[in-house]
Design a protein that fits this description.
Elements: H1 3-13, H2 21-63, H3 66-69, E1 100-105, E2 108-114, H4 129-136, E3 145-149, E4 153-161, E5 167-173, H5 175-210, H6 212-225, H7 248-303, H8 311-341, E6 349-352, H9 353-367, E7 372-376, E8 383-386, H10 388-404, E9 411-420, E10 426-435, H11 471-481, E11 485-491, E12 494-502
Parallel strand pairs: 7-9
Antiparallel strand pairs: 1-2, 1-5, 3-4, 4-5, 6-8, 9-10, 10-12, 11-12
Amino acid sequence: MRAAPRARTRWTRRLPRPRTLRARLTFGLVVLLAVSCAAVGVAAVWELDGFLTGRLDQQLQQTGPSFPKSLEHGAAPAVKPSDHDGDEHGDTRRQAAATFGARLLDGTVTQVAVVPSGSHPGGGVTLTAADRAALAGLGVGRGGHTVHLSELGDYRLAAWPGRDGDVLVTGLPMEPVRAAVHRLELVAGTVFGLALAAAGIAGALWVRWALRPLRRVAQTAVRVSELPLASGEVALPPRAPRTDPRSEVGQVAAAFNRMLHHVEDALTKRHAVEERLRGFAADASHELRTPVASVRGHAELALLHPGPVPPGVTRALERIAAESARMGEMVDEMLLLARLDAGRPLERRPVDLTRLVLDAVTDARAAGPGHRWTMELPEDPVTVTGDAHRLQQVLANLLANARLHTPVGTEVTVSLDLETGQENAATTVVLRVHDDGPGVPEDVRPGVFERFTRADRRRTDPSGGAGAGLGLSIVAAVVQAHGGSVGLDSRPGSTTFTVRLPADGGGVGP
């Protein structure tokens, strides 16, 4: 009992539904017009059927029981027997073709006849039990009743009292009424169908014309969505065309243009602020290099003093020299980022990436002997086109990140692969640095390549040092400057940094 509604619901869900606003408006217009046409058609058919049926009732009242009276008590024939008008046929003079007559006595049909017509030869009619019951149930003097006779079809019947307590029934066929109604239905259906088709086509064209400004707004929004709004100065496309502000489409276009104006102002202000910050970082980094180097030099000079120096002073000088060196590295990193942001070109030469990996892992093994360092390299050297010094810095930063932020005993694997495209042509060099340490905290992963991002809770420097959070941002900036990309896949027990760079020529050196 409950399966049918579910099946009906699934069936209705499979029906095609208009998706676009233009399709919905056109569909709604056609549906409303179809409902209106259906209402007009039903009303016209119902009115015509009632009108023609009323005319039949008037005709029955005018003719009265004259034809069934000729059947009462065996009335004499009005024409020759050759005309099928004997006693059993009744008097057919002045009677319309296919007129039906019957005499009932005590609810039983005693005589029945029909005037000859093209569809019936006239004379007696065979009635079924249902036909006899329907005739017996007619109310005398209550107007016309539509009854279906098995042999003749639908008839409009009326009953009158006879002379001897019998009932006389006269009827006219409903076929002309049904034919006229069916013809009206056919004509109305054809006309309304053509009208709906024409209205659908015209409505679709009109809706398309009316929604042209909205389509232009959508096209402008698509062009804006394709712009690199997150980087540099961006020129927004022309505004959506102005339309009547009193219309809904005009209001949408005006609101969209105001939004674009605000976005353009915000982007311009943001770009100006970024330019000022980059200029400040570059200038500050450049200006800090000299005093930092001076402080470091004086500290190292004081440590070389031949005379006796108190242990506390020696410790202080050593800390000053170490912090000056770290600050110098930070200044160099900030200056490098400022140069990359300014779009300064890098050196473009063939670089043996395999050799860089070997040197970087050797340096990392010396700096972190407590870690297990492994390499997975192809048999042939892999080369890329780029700046060897900057690519070496990428490797050094990734390995230093793995060394400083994982505990002693962690295994760090550096692998180098080639991804081949169509026809076995090398297209991308893939460098991966994998460790089985505790992983990058989940809340840090989205911004791990942003500047000054540090994961202090779990991945900390066991030596007590603290980085400035610029190492991975330098990796991302240098890789991007080489036309590549860098990504992170981290979970507890497995962290992988993946660098992808365009291959140099065939990707494999001599």
